[in-house]
Amino acid sequence: MTDPHLWWYVTRASGLVAWAAMTGSVMWGVLLATRVLRSIDNPAWLRDLHRWLGGTALIMTGLHMLSLMLDSWAHFSLTQVLVPLAAGYRPWPVALGIVAFYLLIAVYGSSLLGPRMPRRFWKALHYGSYASVVLVSFHAGWSGTDVGAWGYRVVAFALLGLTTVAVLVRVLTSASAAPPPRRRPPAAPRRPMTITATYPLSCDVLGIDLSLKDGSELPLWAPGAHVTVHLPNGLQRCYSLCGDPADRCRYRIAVQRAPSSRGGSAWLHANARLGTPLDVSGPSNTFMLEPAEEYVFVAGGIGITPIKAMIDSLPAHRRWQLVYIGASRATMAFSDELQQRWPDHVSIDARDETGVRPDLARILAGSGAAVYCCGPSSMTEELAALVPAARLHIERFNAATQMPDQTGRPFDVTCDRSGTHVHVSGDQSLLEALELADIPVYSSCREGICGACEVRVLAGRPQHLDSVADNENKDGAGIMYPCVSRAHTRTLTLDL
């Protein structure tokens, strides 16, 4: 601590490390924003590394400023390292470094406060990281006393080169990724179908096979997909497909008689017979099975239907585990079949046998598997607290509870294609207001679960109250679901 050269070395070393950490943080921020390496990257660790590099840059910058005050040669005062143009030594280059420090504080602070900030303000503030790196580059080049050293030049050119590449990637991907205004495709047509078979899957679950009346092939579908069944009593209900996607002659669904049925499952259990005609639209898929090395499937009750189709589609060498939870084996569809086919992979947890729910935290401890869950809200909320969002895929029975910031606040909507202006009062949904204005929007569950009523947002900021996808993904795609969602802004412009 008494070596007069110590703080000189600390000053240079901390400054270069801070510069390198800033550059790395910008590069990782670009990867997060553009996902140019989406085939091999992972947003969770990219986000953690981005935040860690930003924190390191801030700490090293603070050490750099402290060492300037402790260095017997430079001997800066607190005012000179915190107030631009207060330094007697090269005031303008030093001022650039001070401004970069404050920008870095703002950017890192916005990372910590991101969920509480308006996304547009957060995004604009994050662009300050580019300015911070540029200012530091000029600060280092103009105020450093050893800029002529070859080691310093190598480091400086490397950091400047990486920053340039990061900026070019950001600019080029932003230009190429901006999609043209997308016209909403027409709603999936209803197909007249016929019930070709019914069979019990458990004491309260009915299996139903549906085929086209003319016997022609059905549209392709992938595991996780669902169809909307239009019932003669005017109700529409979504049911996951649980058959074989290669079977183009029929769709297979499983319908659980709900204790408090609103008329959908009760009608099917009472009236589904061989030859009964039903209109069916779809398939649609908001629960797509994505490639992964390992899976953990968690199903609650009738939530086994999309999960079963996913398991059937897996190659033999894939690692996976199923936790199937229900009130009793008598009520759990496919339980015997699944356990007989894959005894080493399937865990059946019937509460009338075990008396308790399985410890999901213990089951998932230390696992890096992709987790797919379909079940009641108590189960999905528990998993959401245990599993990082990047690895968790959920399909809910009921919409997650999301309270609007201002309940019942009215807003106005402009339908861009038709030129129609719609006022949405506080006691009606956006979907209801559009329907009253004769603006056709295809819908199904009307609870923010199925995703059928997706519309594109051209201007304004929607308030997402659905459970279809993460809010960040919806904002990135510029979409909303008007059956339950509202608006943060006074006006919205929709592609309708």
From TrEMBL:
Keyword annotations of the record: 2Fe-2S, Flavoprotein, Iron, Iron-sulfur, Membrane, Metal-binding, Oxidoreductase, Transmembrane, Transmembrane helix
UniProt KW Phosphoprotein keyword: no
Pfam families named among the record's database cross-references: Fer2
InterPro entries xref list: 2Fe-2S_ferredoxin-like_sf (IPR036010), 2Fe-2S_ferredoxin-type (IPR001041), 2Fe2S_fd_BS (IPR006058), Beta-grasp_dom_sf (IPR012675), FAD-bd_FR_type (IPR017927), FNR_nucleotide-bd (IPR039261), MRET (IPR050415), Riboflavin_synthase-like_b-brl (IPR017938)
Keyword check for Transmembrane: yes
Domain FAD-binding FR-type stretches: 188-290
Cofactors demanded by this protein: FAD
Transmembrane segments: 6-31, 52-74, 94-113, 125-144, 150-173
Domain 2Fe-2S ferredoxin-type: 409-496
Protein name, UniProt field: 2Fe-2S iron-sulfur cluster binding domain-containing protein
Organism: Candidatus Mycolicibacterium alkanivorans
